[in-house]
C-alpha cells in the first residue's frame, strides 16, 4: 500500500517535470548581468567615430543577415550566466529571441548563475548536441578555454557576447559583441573629472561583485582614469556593493561615516548601486546636490536620478543592442562572414556607450531599457 | 552481534520475505523509483541526455562528488555547510602554487585541515554543526578572496589542465573516474570498515554509541575530515578542468549536494542513509538537469522541479508518512469525541 503510493507520487512528478520540460523547450533563461564588457585585453574604443563604425557594422550585418535568411534554420546554444532573474537579462532576451526568429535560428538558452563549473558542464552538453553555433557569455572569463577548445575541436563556431574572453583565448572564437567595461568605468571617471573641474575632491567608490570580471574592469577603469586625468580627485575608500542597492547603501554608509566631512563625491559601478549610495548620503544629512555623483547604466532607476539632478551623470548601456548583436554575430559566424581567430575588423562589435547627464537625459537615443 | 526482537508481528519468511525484509532496511527505495522514472521519461522525451552519457556522467560527478563526502557527515547527524567554500579555497591554494603536484597536495591538506577545524568546534567546543560550519563557510570564502586578490587565479601550466579534462578510459574523463573511485572508497568505508559502520551508531543515538564504547568525537573528526578532503578534491578537479581557480566557485554546489543526499534517502538527523543513496540522488538530479538544459528550460523552472522532488523525497519518508497518519488519526478521533453543537 505504502509502496504503491510512493511509486504513484514519484511517477506523477517525474512525468510532469519532463513533460513540462518538453513543453518549455523553446523558452530560455539567460541574460545579462549588470555590466557588459570585455576583458583588459581588448582595446578601448574611445572615440565616437569608432563607436559609430561599430554600430553601422552591426546594423549592416543585421540587414545582410536578414536578407540572407532564406528559410534555412540553425540550431544555436546560448550559454549565459544569468536569466530573467536579473533586470538586464530581462531586457536582453526578447531582442535576442526576436532577432533569432528573424534569422531562422532556434535558440536553446542556459543560465549558469555565474557558476563557472556549471557553465562548463552546460558547454559540454552543448558540444554533445552538435549545434550550428554557440553564443557564449563567460561566467568567468579565465576559465572558459576548455569550453572553447572543445567547441573548436567539434567544429562549432563560438561568438562571445557581453564580456569578452582573455586575449590568449580570442583565437578560438569567431568574434565578440558587447560593451567595453573598462571603457565604461573610464567614461564615468571622465565625467567625474569634468564635474570636479580641478577642485580638490574626496570620493568614495562602490564596486560590483567582488571577483566578477565586469566589476574589476569597471573599477579599474574608473580609478586609473581618475589617477591619470584628475589627480586632484582622491579616492578615499572603496567597497563592493555586489550589484545590489541595499548592500551598496550599507557599504556607502560605512565609507561616509569613516570619512565624515571629507567626502564630496560618489562613484558607483552601476545605477542600482548608486541609488543605494545616494540614499545613504541622504540618511547622513548630506546635500546630494552638492556632491559629484557618477555611475553606469542609465537604467529605469538611474535615469530619474539624472533628471532630478541627484545623479550628475551615467553611461548608457543598451541591453537590447547586446542581445540582438549576439545573434547577429553568431549568424555571421555560421554563414562564413567572420572566421575563426577574429581576423576581420568586423569581428569585434563594441556597444556605443554615450554619457547621460541633465542635458540629454530625455533624449530618445538614450531612453532607458532596463 | 545484535538481535532484533519482534513484537506482535511475524518475521517474513521465504524469498519474498527476505526481499521485503531487505527492502524495509534500505533507504534508497524512493530514490530508485524516482531515478527509474526520470530515466524512462528522459529516454522518451530527451534521449540525447542518455546517448551523450559521458556528458551526463560528468554532470553527475560534478554534483555527486561533494555530496559523497557530505554524506559521511550527514550519517552522523551533522551538517557541513562549508563544503562549497572549501572547494573554492582549495582551488585557489592549488593554483597559487606554481608546482602542480605540490599545489594539489597543499589543496588536499587544506581540505583535511578545514575538516579538523570544523570537527574541533563541533566535537570539542560543542557548537552545533550548522552554526560552526556556517562560520567556516564565510571565513573560507573570505580567505579565498584574500588569497586570490579577488580575481580568478590561472594555473601556471594550463596545458596540463586542458589535458586533464580529456577522456582517459573510453569516453570517461578523470573527473568521472575519480568520482567512481571516491564512491567505492566511501561505500566500502561505511559498509565494511568498523570505523565507518560506527557512523550510523553515532548518528542513530549518540549517547548509546558512547555507552557502547564508540569514540564518538573521533568519529566526528573522521567524518568532517572526509567531507573536507572530498570537497578539496572537487576543488582540485574543477581547477584542473577549468585551468583557473575561481574564488566564487561552488556557488551552486552546496544546495545541490544536500539535495542529492536527501533524495537518496539520507536522514538529516543521522543514523539512516547510504552512500549508494547519495549516488542515486546525484544521478537523478544530474540526468534531470542535463535533460532540462538540453530542453532549454529556464533555471527558475528547473529549481521548481528540484524543489518538488525534494519535497516529495522528504514527505514520502516512512517516518514522515507515519507522522502524517498519526496526526490524521488523532484529528479524526478528536472530531469524533467532539459533541455536536
Which outline of chain B best applies? globular
Query: Regions of chain A with pLDDT < 50 over 5+ consecutive residues?
Result: 1-12, 16-55
Unreliably modeled segments of chain B: 1-9
**Quaternary state, please?**
heterodimer
Would you tell me the structural class of the helices and strands of chain A?
A: alpha/beta
Rg of chain A, Å, rounded: 22 Å
Strand sequence of the main sheet of chain B, in spatial order?
Answer: 1-2
Beta content of chain B: under 5%
Mean pLDDT metric of chain A: 82
The major pleated sheet of chain A works out as: 6 strands, parallel
Tell me which protein chains meet in the greatest interface and how many residues each side has: A-B, 57 and 62 residues
- How is the main sheet of chain B built? 2 strands, antiparallel
**How far apart, in Å, are the first and last alpha carbons of chain A?**
54 Å
Alpha carbon gyration radius of chain B: 22 Å
In whole angstroms, the N-to-C terminal distance of chain B is 59 Å
How much strand of chain A? 15-25%
Helix content of chain B: over 70%
Number of discrete helical segments of chain A: 11
Order of secondary-structure elements of chain B: HHHHHHHEHHHHHEHHHH
What does this entry look like structurally?
The complex is a heterodimer of chains A (370) and B (341). With 370 residues, chain A is an alpha/beta fold. Chain A has helices at residues 2-23, 48-68, 87-102, 116-129, 145-153, 181-196, 213-229, 245-258, 271-283, 302-308, 319-334, and strands at residues 74-80, 105-111, 133-136, 158-162, 175-178, 201-207, 233-240, 265-268, 292-294, 313-315, 348-350, 355-357. Mean pLDDT of chain A is 82; it is low at 1-12 and 16-55. Chain B is mainly alpha-helical and 341 residues long. Chain B has a domain at 64-252. Chain B is built from 16 helices and two strands. Chain B has helices at residues 14-25, 29-45, 48-51, 53-74, 83-96, 100-125, 129-148, 158-164, 174-192, 194-204, 206-211, 216-242, 253-263, 275-295, 299-315, 318-337, and strands at residues 153-154, 244-245. In chain B, strands 1-2 form a two-stranded antiparallel ribbon. The interface between A and B is large, with 57 and 62 residues.
Amino acid at each position: 500500500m505504502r509502496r504503491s503510493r510512493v511509486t504513484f507520487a514519484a511517477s506523477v512528478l517525474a512525468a510532469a517535470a519532463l513533460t513540462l520540460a518538453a513543453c518549455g523547450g523553446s523558452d530560455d533563461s539567460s541574460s545579462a548581468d549588470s555590466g557588459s564588457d570585455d576583458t583588459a585585453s581588448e582595446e578601448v574604443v574611445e572615440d565616437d567615430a569608432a563607436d559609430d563604425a561599430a554600430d553601422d557594422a552591426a546594423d549592416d550585418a543585421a540587414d545582410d543577415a536578414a536578407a540572407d535568411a532564406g528559410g534555412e534554420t540553425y540550431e544555436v546554444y546560448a550559454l549565459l550566466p544569468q536569466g530573467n532573474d536579473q533586470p538586464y537579462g530581462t531586457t536582453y532576451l526578447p531582442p535576442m529571441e526576436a532577432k533569432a526568429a528573424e534569422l531562422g535560428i532556434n535558440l536553446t538558452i542556459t543560465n549558469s548563475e555565474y557558476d563557472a563549473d556549471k557553465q562548463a558542464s552546460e558547454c559540454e552538453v552543448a558540444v554533445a548536441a552538435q549545434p550550428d553555433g554557440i553564443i557564449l557569455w563567460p561566467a568567468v572569463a579565465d576559465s572558459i578555454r576548455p569550453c572553447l577548445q572543445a567547441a573548436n575541436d567539434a567544429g562549432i563556431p563560438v561568438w562571445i557576447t557581453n564580456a569578452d574572453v582573455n586575449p590568449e583565448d580570442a583565437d578560438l572564437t569567431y568574434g565578440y559583441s558587447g560593451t567595453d567595461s573598462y571603457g565604461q568605468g573610464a567614461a564615468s571617471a571622465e565625467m567625474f573629472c569634468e564635474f570636479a573641474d580641478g577642485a580638490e575632491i574626496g570620493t568614495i567608490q562602490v564596486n560590483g561583485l567582488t571577483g566578477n570580471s565586469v566589476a574589476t574592469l569597471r573599477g579599474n577603469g574608473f580609478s586609473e582614469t581618475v589617477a591619470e586625468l584628475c589627480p586632484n580627485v582622491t579616492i578615499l575608500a572603496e567597497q563592493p556593493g555586489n550589484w545590489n542597492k541595499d548592500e551598496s547603501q550599507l557599504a556607502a554608509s560605512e565609507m561616509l561615516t569613516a570619512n565624515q566631512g571629507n567626502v564630496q563625491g560618489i562613484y558607483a559601478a552601476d545605477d542600482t548601486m548608486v541609488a543605494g549610495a545616494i540614499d545613504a548620503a541622504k540618511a547622513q544629512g548630506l546635500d546630494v546636490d552638492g556632491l559629484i555623483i557618477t555611475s553606469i547604466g542609465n537604467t529605469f532607476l538611474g535615469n530619474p536620478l539624472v533628471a532630478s539632478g541627484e545623479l550628475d551623470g551615467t553611461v548608457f548601456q543598451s541591453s537590447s543592442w547586446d542581445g540582438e548583436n549576439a545573434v547577429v554575430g553568431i549568424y555571421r559566424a555560421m554563414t562564413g562572414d567572420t572566421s575563426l581567430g577574429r581576423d576581420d575588423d568586423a569581428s569585434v562589435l563594441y556597444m556605443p556607450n554615450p554619457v547621460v547627464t541633465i542635458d540629454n537625459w530625455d533624449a530618445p537615443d538614450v531612453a532607458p531599457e532596463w | 552481534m545484535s538481535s532484533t526482537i519482534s513484537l506482535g508481528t511475524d518475521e517474513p519468511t521465504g524469498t519474498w520475505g527476505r526481499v521485503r525484509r531487505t527492502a524495509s532496511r534500505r533507504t534508497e527505495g524512493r530514490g530508485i523509483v524516482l531515478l527509474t522514472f526520470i530515466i524512462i521519461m528522459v529516454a522518451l522525451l530527451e534521449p540525447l541526455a542518455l546517448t551523450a552519457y559521458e556528458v551526463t556522467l560528468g554532470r553527475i560527478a560534478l554534483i555527486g562528488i561533494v555530496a559523497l563526502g557530505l554524506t559521511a557527515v550527514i550519517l552522523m547527524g551533522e551538517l557541513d555547510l562549508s563544503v562549497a567554500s572549501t572547494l573554492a579555497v582549495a582551488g585557489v591554494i592549488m593554483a597559487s602554487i606554481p608546482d602542480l603536484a605540490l599545489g594539489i597536495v597543499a589543496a588536499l591538506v587544506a581540505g583535511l585541515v578545514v575538516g579538523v577545524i570544523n570537527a574541533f568546534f563541533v566535537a570539542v567546543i560543542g557548537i552545533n554543526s550548522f552554526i560552526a560550519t556556517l562560520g567556516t563557510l564565510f571565513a573560507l570564502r573570505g580567505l579565498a578572496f584574500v588569497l586570490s586578490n579577488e580575481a580568478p587565479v590561472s594555473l601556471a601550466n594550463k596545458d596540463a589542465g586542458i589535458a586533464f579534462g580529456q577522456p582517459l578510459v573510453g569516453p570517461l574523463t578523470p573527473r568521472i573516474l575519480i568520482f567512481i573511485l571516491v564512491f567505492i572508497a566511501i561505500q566500502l568505508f561505511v559498509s565494511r570498515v568498523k570505523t565507518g559502520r560506527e557512523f550510523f551508531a553515532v548518528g542513530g543515538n549518540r549517547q548509546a554509541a558512547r555507552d557502547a564504547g564508540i569514540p564518538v568525537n573521533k568519529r566526528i573528526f573522521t567524518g568532517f575530515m572526509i567531507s573536507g578532503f572530498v570537497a578539496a578534491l572537487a576543488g582540485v578537479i574543477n581547477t584542473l578542468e577549468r585551468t583557473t581557480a575561481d574564488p566564487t566557485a561552488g556557488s551552486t554546489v552546496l544546495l545541490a549536494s544536500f539535495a542529492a543526499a536527501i533524495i537518496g534517502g539520507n536522514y538529516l538527523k543521522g543514523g539512516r542513509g547510504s552512500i549508494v543513496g547519495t549516488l542515486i540522488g546525484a544521478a537523478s538530479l544530474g540526468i534531470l538537469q542535463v535533460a532540462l538544459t538540453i530542453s532549454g528550460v529556464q533555471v527558475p523552472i528547473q529549481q521548481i522541479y528540484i524543489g518538488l522532488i525534494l519535497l516529495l523525497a522528504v514527505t514520502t519518508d516512512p517516518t514522515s508518512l507515519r507522522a502524517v497518519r498519526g496526526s490524521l488519526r488523532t484529528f479524526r478521533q478528536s472530531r469524533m469525541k467532539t459533541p455536536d453543537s
